[in-house]
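A favour, since you know our structure tokens better than I do. Would you make up a two-line entry for one protein for me to read? Write everything out right here, beneath this request.
=====
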Amino acid sequence: MKQYNVQVRLNQESNFDVVVEADSHDDAVDLVTDQVWNDELHREIRNCNEIISEDYDAEEVLADFDIYDAEDEFLDVMYEQPNEAVALEEYNATSAVLGDYAERR
């Protein structure tokens, strides 16, 4: 089974009311803004949270593999391969000196 890294992009929105005592409109907005950024309203935000758009992008996780010969001598590195077998196959297809096994870095 292959491994995939899935990037998740969610745009979320929270709509709720907060009642505060303030001297002016600007003071009221500043008070609530401070409460939001100081995480004082995290419960309200979470309770009213709604996903308004979503996007997912999957990419196969690839790794780098060291190639060794039968005498355990290091030969080369195969970059960004899905598994040991593919790394070894790729190395042997492009090299005059054949590797006997591949090991994940």
Residues 63 and 83 are 7 Å apart (CA to CA). The chain has two domains: 4-59, 62-104. The helical segments are 25-37, 42-47, 84-94.
